[in-house]
Amino acid sequence: MPSTQTLIHVDHASREYRLGETTIRAVNDLSLEISAGEFLALLGSSGSGKSTLLNLMAGLDRPTSGAIHVRGQNLAALDSQGLARYRRETVGMVFQSFNLLPRMTLEENVELPLRLAEVDRAERGRRVRQALERVRLSARSAHRPSELSGGEQQRGALARALVNQPAILFADEPTGNLDSTTGEQILLLLQEIQQTLGMTIIMVTHERPLAERFANRIAVLSDGRLVDQLAMQTGARA
Amino acid sequence: MKPRDLTELAVRNLREAILRNSLTTLGVAVGVASLVAMLSLGVGLQTLASDRLTKSGLFDAVFVTSRRDFRGPGGDGPPRKSSAPPEKFKPLDEDARQQFAALPNVVDVYPQIRFLTDVRYNGANFSTNVLGVPESSRTASAFDGITGKYFSSPTAEEAILQADFAKELSPQPATLVGKEITLRYAERRAASPDEIAKEKDIDTQLDEMMSGGISIVSREKKLRIAGVIESDPSAGIGGFGGGRVFLPIKVAEQLHPAQANDVQDFVRGGGSGKPTYAALTVRVQNPKNVLQVEDAIKKSGYNAFSLLDAARSLRLVFTVFDLFLGLFGSLALTVASLGIINTLVMAILERRREIGVLKSLGATDRDVKNLFFAEAGAMGLVGGIFGVTLGWLIGQALTWGTTIYLRRQDLPGVKISYVPWWLAASAIAFAVAVSLVAGLYPAGRAAKLNPVEALRYE
Predict the structure, then answer these.
(1) Pick from B156, B253, B425, B435: most CB atoms within 10 A?
(2) What is the DSSP letter of A66?
(3) Nearest-CA distance from A209 to chain B in Å?
């Protein structure tokens, strides 16, 4: 069961971009609280600012103003090294286009975060096997991404996101490049991970039915602002 | 990231774009090779020249004359004041010789012994000059192409003939080696020189000497011919030269031959009664020691002279020569480093997304920078090692070609290219350093990439 403890607190955060003369506010004075163990879906049309918000919370980007507190730590105040550590130790990320490195085998891709975290070699092997088992890809560990199907690649990316045992998993349109059946399998896997590991999952999507089916809560964004929040009583969780 | 992981990733990245990275590395190798070939040529030619000069016996010798002697090489220096106290004039005698021999780094001290003689061979008589040759001449370049051998010992009763003279004795000079010749020479006997020297009037001294102070006796000496040489080992400084028959100097001294400068020698003997020398040659271990020995001899009251100044300006010429060769070699390496910059900048564009992924997984700016640095350094290291090998091969080829050319001209082959270990090591270090500097800009640019933008890049 998700605890009610606040894990992420977005506090009047804004993110502006300059395009020549005009200033675009991708995220506009947005506030949001996310509890530990929650499965939150950020829903919105393209350009609504949902991906920008995800990047801010994942420590890939900094707000132009406002604050983002994760476990009481303000990400906006961290230097680039501090943000890198936050991404390495607290965050796992899954992308729409999988982003597995094509030159490496699946196993090596999954090992990459452990290399960056300077984990012992013996320990690495064990954790990589465990992560691949969890996403049921052990048999494909020696294959390169180009030899895997889309669904397999996304499961591999998921294993890579989980291998460092992060507290929060960010997923940016994880089903966007997959057919509906495969996409559903990925979401089932995410849900399973949330429930068995108690992980907090924040997913960006523009497919409302999927969000309604798997998320605990839906936050709807439009023009960089939070316009609606819906708590779900998901069938799968009941 | 740990260095081992960094290296593994760098090597993997280099292997992936194998053709491009190999070409870049080859560029570095060619740059290093040209640098090494140029410098090895410089070092080789310098080694060759200084080796030849050392062997010539001109640059490792100090020529000493007495201050009373206004003749000789030292006499051409700044004019000495006539008011100099006469007590300071020291005779160049046996004591002085031993004093010089005891100086540090001195290999040999020998006088000039040259006398006229008749050589009898096969019943015929030939008139010629005999010259005493010091033991230290064993390594002199004049004896390099000897037919036969150098003197078997410093006191061997052997002779070496100059080729022109040998041809007078026999149409086939090589057959002379091992044969015996007889020297007929005049031996000088100084009878009671003390008494003669006490006479204050020079004219009287000369008279006494002519009448009986010195007696001259005709002598004969049998010598075995040890070898025949083309060139004259005594040519050059010191006032001697022109010898056609060479003896070990110790053997020549024991003959007590009457020499052309005996009269002067005798006068110079002053009140000491000991035999004096017109000039002594002091041979030192290394041209480097010449100055120090020269100074020591000057301080003890003799005229000393060396050709070191000439050697010094020669070294300057070679330093400038090396500088220019190095400059040309470096140009090639500069072009190669531009190749590294180009390759890595291209790699950043190509691997933008990969950099974004690495950063999203928690790679720090430093991790990304180090990765690119490691790749640049690896290209530099491999290029450097390959380049040194290539440069060495070019040098070998040059030596080989030169040797063939020289052989055709009936000249001995020489090693014109020389790669000492320090040149190899510093060339590799230089290649790595240049590559790292070349990687500075691309690595910095890669590290600064914004992960969000990098991930968006297709």
Answers:
(1) B435
(2) E
(3) 26
| B298 and B444 together in one domain | no
Look at residue A62 and give its three-state secondary structure.
coil
- Name the burial class of residue A62, with classes exposed (0-12), middle (13-18) and buried (19+) by CB atoms within 10 angstroms of its CB: middle
Comparing CB atoms, the residue among B353, B360, B450 nearest residue A93 is: B360
Average pLDDT score over residue span B159-164: 86
**Is the ipTM here above 0.90?**
yes
Count of structural domains within chain B: 3
∠B38-B40-B45 over CA atoms, to 5°? 100
Q: Residue B5: what are its φ and ψ, rounded to 5°?
A: -65, -40
Q: Which positions 141-180 of A are in contact with B (Cβ < 8 Å)?
A: 160, 164
Are A177 and A169 spatial neighbours (Cβ–Cβ below 8 Å)?
Answer: no
Neighbours of A55 (CB within 10 A): 23
Q: What would the two tokens of residue B156 be? A: 């061997």
Domain boundaries A6-231, CATH class = alpha beta
Contacts 24+ apart (CB under 8 A), B11-15: B11/B378, B12/A103, B12/A104, B13/A103, B13/B347, B13/B351, B13/B371, B13/B375, B14/B375, B14/B378, B14/B379
Alpha carbon distances (Å) from A78 to A62, A91, B144, B166, B451 = 9, 15, 78, 95, 16
B388-to-B38, B395, B420 alpha-carbon distances in Å: 11, 10, 11
Tell me the shortest Cα–Cα distance from A92 to chain B, in angstroms.
7
Residues B403 and B324 in one domain: yes
What does the block give as tokens for B7?
Answer: 């290296």
CB of B451 within 8 Å of a chain A CB? The answer is yes
- For B283-331, the pLDDT digits (tens) are 888 777 788 888 888 888 888 878 766 666 777 777 788 788 888 777 8
Tokens of B334: 């500069």
Residues in Cβ contact with A32 at an 8 Å cutoff, skipping those fewer than 6 apart: A8, A9, A10, A53, A219, A226
Query: pTM of this prediction?
Result: 0.66
Q: What is the 3-state secondary structure (H, E, C) of B23-68?
A: HHHHHHHHHHHHHHHHHHHHHHHHHHHHHHHHHHCCCCEEEEEECC
- Across chain A, mean pLDDT equals 91
Query: Does residue B226 sit in the same domain as residue B365?
Result: no
Mark whether B168 and B290 lie in a shared domain: no
Shared domain check, B219 and B160: yes
- Residue A80 tokens, joined: 């680039």
Range of the domain at B257: 113-276
Smallest Cα distance from A109 to chain B, Å: 10
